[in-house]
Amino acid sequence: TTQTTTTTAATVLAWASASRRLFHTSSLLVSKFSVTYVESDSPEHPDAIDVTGKDGVDILQNPIFNKGTGFKDRERDRHRLRGLVPPVTNTLEEQSERVFEAMDFITEPSPHKEDIAKHNFLTALQDRNEVLFYKLLVDHIEEMAPLVYTPTVGYACEKASLLFRRPRGMYFTYSSPEGDESRGDKGDIRGIMQNWPQDDVDIVVVTDGERILGLGDLGVDGMAIPIGKLAIYTAAAGIHPRRCLPVMLDVGTNCKKRLVRKYYMGRRHPRIEGEEYYDFLDEFMAAVKFRYPNALIQFEDFFTPKAENVLQRFKHDYCCFNDDIRHGSSGPCWNVISNAHHQ
After folding, report:
1. Phi first, then psi: what are they for 130, rounded to 5°?
2. 258 in helix, strand or coil?
């Protein structure tokens, strides 16, 4: 028994020693369980391996490198992650607390919890196997559509920051509140748009989160709306998911409970208005047209008094529409376009 114990202990120590050597030569450093990316010629870490060979979604889809909302500005710039993750930057401790609280939400009784769980299950399926996701959605459209989009998507938006798992689409933020170390995207949107990995996009669905269904101003928590709408477009009209781009414009929120909510993933300041708002939209629209000149841009869930102004501002220079204002022909239009592509 003593010999067996000694042998087992020696095996464990040998495995631990090998693991330490392997981890030391890996392409990341861990300090207090926090992953830090470094350059290969970093004087602080001369033995570190350069990880700049991985960029953008390749990092986000790698469970070793992905830090979710933990990427700092410098890392987002270096690894082409700007626009691909929510605007907020969280510490590892904050992310751990959020996930732990999300586990409590899953186990506690709450309204619509079962539907939210189904929505999140389908979202996870979409992240790991889009072909299977759309096969399921097409074969069971009557049962699946209310879970992927309305009404369930509204319930999911309410808990979006708490239950965040993996980003999808692009986020553009106007500015940072005073004292925030991270910066806004104004003036850089055209460059950030290059971080999207697809070279061809047919449709962009963009929201600023101010009028999400009947729930009001949800800020960045409304990102599931353009994602869900594009999923329905793919299932119902045959638009290839790679040619779809959901976008959130984070221009702040006037919802006081979100401004103080612990895990809110947007900028914590009131909405920008007036010329600042429209100048930001001008820059975004120009950036989309520069990268994707043939793309249709759909304005989704903009505040009603503002939505008509936005449409009037851009309708003569861009291929765009707002189905909250003119929705009657959008579905048949996409069916005609899709059928034309297939013939």
Report:
1. -65, -35
2. helix
For the stretch 67-113, pLDDT in tens is 999 999 999 999 999 999 999 999 999 999 999 999 988 877 878 88
Residue 235 CA: distances (Å) to CA of 10, 170, 174, 295: 57, 21, 33, 19
- Residue 243: predicted pLDDT: 97
pTM over 0.90: no
Residues with catalytic annotation? 149, 229
CA distances from 116 to 133, 187, 258, 272 (A): 17, 37, 19, 31
d(CA 232, CA 215): 21
Contact 245, 204 (CB under 8 A): yes
Local structure of 64: helix, strand or coil: coil
Non-local (6+) Cβ contacts of 188 within 8 A are 82
Cβ proximity of 307 and 329 under 8 Å: no
CA dist., res. 294 & res. 38, Å (int)? 39
Q: How far is 47 from 26, CA to CA, in rounded Å? A: 10
Amino acid identity, position 25: T
Distance of CA 254 to the CA centre of its chain: 21
Residues 161-216: tens digit of each pLDDT: 999 999 999 999 997 654 454 578 999 999 999 999 999 999 999 999 998 887 88
Contact 48, 42 (CB under 8 A): yes
Structure tokens at 176: 């940072």
Quote the crossing angle between the two packed helices 113-128 and 141-148, to the nearest 10°.
Answer: 100
Q: 29 - beta bridge partners?
A: 36
